[in-house]
Amino acid sequence: MNLVFLGPAGSGKGTQAKRLEVDYRVTQISTGDLLRNAVREGTELGKKAEPLMREGRLVPDDLVIGLIEERLAKGDLGGGILFDGFPRTLPQARALDEALARHGRKIDKVISLEVPEAILVDRVTGRRSCPVCGTVYHVRARPPKVEGKCDVEGADLVQRSDDTAEKLEKRLEVFRTEIPKVKEFYREREILAEVDGVGEPDEVYDRVRRAVEG
Ligand code: AMP
């Protein structure tokens, strides 16, 4: 099974994707994570992507598509793939279809997590994560046991540089213009499921599962 997860920053995509990964044995491919790795490692691509990511703007399609093709070529994708944060534009959606076809795969289902913008702002600006193990917290909704420290690693929690109100606004603006086209592309193929992303993670996950299996 190959899935696409659509949703703006703070929609809970990452959290829900982790659960699907366990239950459906799919491998999560997050372009945001791949890009952040490239930035950390200081690769050519990372150097090009870093200023755009810092501003909440999209990294050019050819770079992101290249990353996805590289990841697909590496194999080791088990029972399927869960694309998180990709495709974000119509050209990316088309390129994904072509790249998957070359690997004898296709997208089976596209889940779009729907969350009102007011909730996104609260979720994203309160988000903190552990730089060592990646565990994600929220200053109010999911605080660590000791303020500012990871429960698992004890490391100081960090805030992503693009998780501020101002940067988020830019990211949402990009999302509002591009994602409707991506959704339309999948709606026409009758593989789009819009899922209400408001509520406790368990509740939302029940809806996601139903959509995946429906
Ligand atoms: P995310 O972690 O998914 O919120 O992505 C963080 C940032 O990485 C985005 O704000 C973009 O700058 C960049 N990015 C991630 N995925 C894509 C994509 N599919 N296309 C273009 N830029 C992306």
Task: Give an account of the 3D structure.
The protein is of the alpha/beta class and 214 residues long. It has two domains: 2-117 and 165-213, P-loop containing nucleotide triphosphate hydrolases (Rossmann fold, 3-Layer(aba) Sandwich); 127-162, no CATH class. 50% of the residues lie in helices and 14% in strands. The chain has a five-stranded parallel sheet with strand order 2-3-1-4-7, sandwiched between helices. It has a two-stranded antiparallel ribbon with strand order 5-6. The longest helix is centred in the C-terminal third of the chain and has 24 residues, at 165-188. The two termini are 13 Å apart. The site of adenosine monophosphate has 17 residues, from α2 and α3.
Small-molecule binders: adenosine monophosphate
Query: Helical percent range?
Result: 40-55%
CATH architecture verdict of the largest domain: 3-Layer(aba) Sandwich
Mean pLDDT: 93
Whole-angstrom Rg = 17 Å
CATH superfamily of the largest domain: P-loop containing nucleotide triphosphate hydrolases
Task: Identify the overall geometry.
Answer: globular
The DSSP helix count reads 8
Distance between the termini: 13 Å
The CATH class label of the largest domain is Alpha Beta
Reported for the largest beta sheet, the result is: 5 strands, parallel
CATH topology of the largest domain: Rossmann fold
According to DSSP, the number of beta strands is 7
Lateral arrangement of strands in the main beta sheet = 2-3-1-4-7
Number of domains: 2
Give the DSSP E fraction (strand runs of 2 or more residues). Answer: 5-15%
Label the structural class: alpha/beta
The low-confidence runs, each spanning 5 or more residues with pLDDT under 50, are none
